[in-house]
Structure formats: structure tokens, C-alpha cells
Amino acid sequence: MTDNVRQVLHRVFGYRDFIGQQEAVIEHTVAGGDSLVLMPTGGGKSLCYQIPAIVRDGVGVVVSPLIALMRDQVEDLRQTGVRAACLNSTLTYREVLETESAVEAGRLDLLYVAPERLLGERTLQLLSRTRLALFAIDEAHCVSQWGHDFRPEYLQLSALPELFPEVPRIALTATADEPTRREIVDRLSLRDTPLFVSGFDRPNIRYHVVPKNNARAQLRRFLEGHGGDAGIVYCLSRRKVDQTAEWLQGIGVNALPYHAGLDGAIRQRHQDRFVREDGIVIVATIAFGMGIDKPDVRFVAHLDLPKSIEAYYQETGRAGRDGGPADAWMVYGLQEVVTLRSMVDNSEAGEARKRLEVRKLDAMLGYCELATCRRRTLLGYFGETHVQDCGNCDNCLTPVAVWNATEASQKAMSCVSRTGQRFGAAYLTDVLRGRDSERVRRFAHDRLPTFGVGADLDAWQWRSVFRQLVARGLLSVEMERYGSIRLTDASRPVLCGEAEVHMRLDARPVAPRRKRKPREALPPPDPGTWDEALWEALRKRRTELAKAQSVPPYVIFHDATLREMVARRPRTRENFAGLVGVGETKLRRYADDFLAVIAAHEAGGDRSKPGPHP
Ligand code: ADP
Ligand code: ZN
After folding, report:
1. 593 CA → ligand 1 middle, Å
2. Which of 175-179, 292-296, 315-319 has the least mean pLDDT?
3. ∠ CA 176-181-185 to the nearest 5 degrees?
4. Is 290's pLDDT higher than 90?
5. Can you tell me which atom of ligand 1 is nearest the CA of 48?
6. What is the DSSP letter of 399?
7. For a substitution probing ligand 1, which of 11, 76, 321 has the most ligand atoms within 8 Å of its CB?
8. d(Cα 74, Cα 80) in Å, to the nearest integer?
9. Whose CA is nearest to atom 18 of ligand 1?
10. Average pLDDT over residues 367-394
11. Would you state the pLDDT for residue 197?
């Protein structure tokens, strides 16, 4: 069996080896077992059910909530030579009939189905007449009511074990927290099934969190290091999405908005362009991205805080699926903390749910305020212990100093108290720094003992102090009262000198312009073999081939395969077959096209312009 499975890996997919837990999952599934597979986004979940579906008799049914992506997934498989089709509401009646007859005739390896479609009478009838290899439930966390992506139609999937008791079920997700796991196992009746947890680490993603000063200027500087790259910018509100996209277009970034308020056709068009064209930046609410399979997203930027670490990890995980270097970048400030806290407070949810949300938000804020390795904390949250610092997050790359902010905290708290717990951080800072303003005089706050006691810190530092105090619950902010800051129960021990407060010493916002980052997660660029002109010529050919078939370029070949073409310069079909990502079908379809590009390039002798490695 092992041989058979490996053969499919080489012959069909053109990969050299399995990654992570793939082989274990595949063997278990081929043998007919159920399982729950937890792998980070980009961890290679698809092969876990695709190979068993090919190897086992019958068709493998894949349940996915993302019907917009099904066509691309199916196209990707067909390009690879796998017999795949989908059933969802976007098909014409004719296409439905074609797919159904392919299923009945046993002419398919994989069938992608939307959950509501799967449990419709017609599909159930069809499947009951058909030999089934397995059920793969993708994005399985959608079944969890506690999770962050609950989909009611997923609840009905609990009927599967009764209707098809003998067909193995494999549930896959990238969301790892314990309650969600338990709920998946429960609802899909995955009792006594092994849990395959892959390392959650995404070593190629570099994490940065920067205190907000001027978010747009900061984003702009960040994007300078990503010219021509595809990326995602997340914002909390639709309005902010629209405004940010417009502003980015104005400064020459190829940006497109995406949120639930846009017309469906426009949304679809923007998503398609993101997937199909090189170098598009999508500005989106969290409505965007679940299941986006685009492998070459080079950055994910958050202009607003996600509500939980799971959400953050899932959103940032959309970067760098191809293993190449990628950035997860986030800017955050006091305002974001206040907005999220008040969203939780004002939500209609019950008390238990609210407490859970507050806990999740606190964990997220704790992550933002870390002065130590971010990756270690993230992975720790998912139950993985790493003893070494990662060397690839902002805190590892530029260690952060910690200072004893007990006295500053006491001054801040006493200022809050003496001004009547009615003012926001900016005004409190004025009082602390002894700023002589009309407003200060009107309230006679220039006569308070705290007036001017904080002149040793500047406004930027005070902003950092207030943000960190609120993030830790040592102060609170009331949204209804225009962001006025109040004391909390936790303030008292600090005020009385019973508790110390240590804080990050935030770097000043006047950071020097960053140099282009070294991209060490790639195989080191070999200046002797790297050839920018050839790379561009290969990309151009790929785009032409993709356009001609209306498919995304990565469906033809991933960047990794093109990179190998540049480095190894295959001249024969035999050499070509040895490239990663080249299986039998792609060899037959595309070898000649790309070999011709390489040959023409060599004949032209155009090796004059060696450029940076992508
Ligand atoms: P997930 O669904 O877990 O987010 P995918 O299944 O889409 O991840 O795989 C992520 C990327 O890794 C894809 O580009 C895929 O082609 C690649 N990949 C998966 N398995 C292997 C492997 N064994 N060898 C090389 N690349 C792989
Ligand atoms: Zn680190």
C-alpha cells in the first residue's frame, strides 16, 4: 500500500516526499479509518484526502463551504490529471447532469459538494447508488457553534455517519483550540478516531506587531518592501475597507476592496482577479479569505485587531502557503482595543459566550503586548511547546526592552481618578505633561497635584502607557462616554504600591526606512544560476497559458516549480519531469511550452541582467 500511495504522490502530483503527517493520515484513511486532521493553513491538508480518494475504490466526496472556490480546486486537480468535479448552486442544469452521470458511471475520483447540496434529496439518492471512497469534511470547525466561523448547514452533517456508516470520514481544519476540537469530534461522531496534529509552526511567516502612530504611513512603509507582491489587508469595517482601498489605489498600489456589502458580482470579480493576476492587494473584512488557496500571498496586514488568536492565526496563515518568505504585519493602538472591547460588551450574546469572548480578546491583546518571541506564544496557545526563540519575529529580530512602569502607571491612574474618570487618553496626557491649554484651565486641572508630574515622558510614551494599561485591564475605557478612561478593580493594587507593572518600551515611530528583507526561507538564491529575465519570461508564458484556459496561473505551475526551472534549466523532458510539482499530466501538457521558453532564452544569450531573487 505504501508503494501505491507514494507512486501517486510522484506520478500524479510530482512531489518528492510527504510533509508533516500526510503519510500517516493517508495510510489510515486508505485503510478505511476515520480521523480528525489538524494542520495549519498551507500545511498540506488536501493531499490527505485526495490521495486516498484516488487510491480507494469509488468517488471521494469533499464537503466544503466555499463554493466560490470549488471551480478552481476542481480545475487545479484536472490540470494535475485527477478526475474531479463539483456540485453546487453555481452550475447550470446541464453541468449538474453531466456531473451526476460521471458520478454514476464511476468516472470520478473526487466530487466537491456544498454542505446544503450534499444533504439534499437528489444528491443523497445519487450517492446511495454510488460506491464512495470517503467523505472529507473540509473547514470542519464550521460545525462548531463556539468557533468563529459557524455555519448552520454544517450541523446537518451529523447525519452522515447514520446514512453512510461504512464510508470513512476525515474532518480537516486549521483551527486548533480544544473546545472546537471536541465539538467537531462530537458532531461528526468521530469517536475513537485518531487525531493527527501537525506542527502548527509556519516558520516562513515573519510576525510583526507595531504600535500605531499613523496607520497609513506605517502601512505605506511596510508595503514598500512588497512591491508587486500579492497580499491581503484586513480591516474591521466595510467603510474602512473602501477608504483604505481607495487610498492605496491613489498611491499606486493595485488594490481592490472586498466585503459583504459589495455587490456579489463585484466581489466575485475582485476575488477572481486576486487569484488570477499577479500582485493584487485585496483590502477586506474577515468575510474574505477562508479557503483561499492562492499559494503565493506574500503578506497579510491587519489594520484592526482580530478578535482572537485563532482568527489571527488563520488569517495570517493565508500568507506564504508555498513555503516562501511571507510577512504577517499588524498595527494596533488604544482605539482598536477600545472598539473590540465594546463590541464584546455590547454583543447580544449570553453571559457564558461573552466571558469566552473576553478571554479570547485578552489573549489576543497579550500577544500584541509581548516583549518576547511571538511565535513561541502563538504555538503555546495551540499546545505546542518550543524552547527556542524563533529568530523570525519582530521581537526576536529587534529585542524589546522592558521597563518598570509602576510609577508611571500610578501617575496615570491617579490622574484618571483626580479628573473624575471622565476623560480620554489624549487629555489625560495633557494634564500629566502639564500642558497649558484652555480646556485644562477651564476644568481647573492645572491646579491638581498630578498636573505636570509626568513631564518626564513625552506624548508618545504616555500613549504607550495608557494602551498597555487598558490592554491588561488595569484601566478600562467606556465607549458610550467618548472613550473616557476609568479605574478598574485591578487598578487598586498598583495605586497602593502592592503590584508592579512592567511594560514594553515601544520603539519610536521614526523608524528608519527598512531595507528589503533577506528572504532566507527560500533555498538560498544562487547568483550563478538566477536569471531575472528567464524568470519573467517563464511567468509570462504561464500567464498566457492560464489566460487561454481561464484558470489561475498557479494552477499551471506554482512559483516553486518556475524557480526550479530558472535554477536547473532543464533542456529535456526527462530533466523537466524531475522538477518539483511536475507529474505525468503536467509533463505532457506543458513541458514543451516551458522548454521552448528556456531554449529561446538560451539561444538569445540573454543572461545580461541578473536581478534579485524573487
Ligand atoms: P491546506 O489545505 O492545508 O491549507 P494545501 O493542501 O492547499 O494546504 O497545501 C498547501 C501547499 O503545499 C500547496 O501549494 C500544495 O501544492 C503544497 N504541498 C502539499 N503537499 C505537498 C508535498 N508533499 N510536497 C510539496 N508540496 C506540497
Ligand atoms: Zn520569535
Report:
1. 25
2. 175-179
3. 150
4. no
5. 6
6. P
7. 321
8. 10
9. 44
10. 90
11. 78
Q: What is the mean pLDDT of the chain?
A: 88
The protein residues having their C-beta less than 5 angstroms from ligand 2 (an ion) are 373, 375, 389-390, 393, 396
Quick check: CB of 322 below 6 Å from ligand 1? yes
CA distance 164 to 147: 26
Q: Which atom of ligand 1 is nearest to 19's Cα?
A: 23
Asked if residue 521 has pLDDT above 50, the reply is no
* Count of Cβ atoms closer than 10 Å to residue 383 Cβ: 11
Q: Is residue 605 within a helix (H) or strand (E), and if so which, with residue range?
A: none
CB 240 within 8 A of CB 303: yes
Residue 608 has pLDDT above 50, yes or no: no
Q: Which residue has the cell 460588551?
A: 345
Helices (H) and strands (E) in the chain, counts: 28, 17
Question: How many Å lie between the centroid of ligand 2 and the Cα of residue 503?
Answer: 18
Residues 462-488: tens digit of each pLDDT: 999 999 999 888 998 886 667 789 999
247 is written with which cell numbers? 487610498
Q: Choose the residue to mutate in 16, 19, 556 for probing ligand 1, maximizing ligand atoms within 8 Å of C-beta.
A: 19
pLDDT in tens, 426-474: 999 999 999 989 999 999 999 999 999 999 999 989 999 999 999 888 9
Q: What is the mean pLDDT of residues 342-367?
A: 82
Write down the H helix ranges in 18-120: 22-30, 45-55, 67-80, 93-104, 115-118
554 Cβ closer than 6 Å to some ligand 1 atom: no
DSSP assignment of 313-337, as one string? HHHHTTS-TTSS-EEEEEEE-HHHH
The mean pLDDT of 382-402, rounded to a whole number, is 89
Contact 23 CB / ligand 1 (< 6 Å): no
Q: Whose CA is nearest to atom 2 of ligand 1?
A: 45
User: What pTM, to 2 d.p., does this model score?
Assistant: 0.71
Give 317's contacts (C-beta < 8 A, 6+ positions apart). 40, 41, 42, 174, 202, 205
Q: Per residue in 389-408, is it b (16+ CB within 10 Å) or e — as a string?
A: ebebbbbbeeebeeeebeeb
Q: Distance from the CA of 394 to the center of ligand 2, in angstroms?
A: 7
User: CA-to-CA distance for 72 and 542, rounded, in angstroms?
Assistant: 16
Q: Report the length, in residues, of the chain.
A: 614
HEC sequence for 518-571? CCCCCCCCCCCCCCHHHHHHHHHHHHHHHHHHCCCHHHHCCHHHHHHHHHHCCC
pLDDT band at residue 520 using 50, 70 and 90 as cut-offs: very low
Q: What is the mean pLDDT of residues 187-211?
A: 85
- Measured over all CA atoms, what is the biggest interatomic distance in the chain, rounded to whole angstroms? 88
Collapsing DSSP to helix, strand or coil, 146 comes out as coil
